[in-house]
């Protein structure tokens, strides 16, 4: 897991980027994340939605659970930054 940023910090940063994004930018992020998921499914097999929901709804904070949550947030942040620009950039 990335020790330079906590999950709460990553979650907050993702929320900041989401609030700054336009509807079109968010749609592009969704398309890119869907392609990333499809690529993983083709290479490694289907990810059952029920497994993901179970993990998200779990109250157990295992290392695996935290790693999945953190990697998900970092993926989201990466796509948002690439599509929308950096945190400090203003839109014109």
From TrEMBL:
Domain of life: Bacteria
The name this protein goes by in its record: Uncharacterized protein
Species in which this protein is naturally found: Nitrosospira multiformis
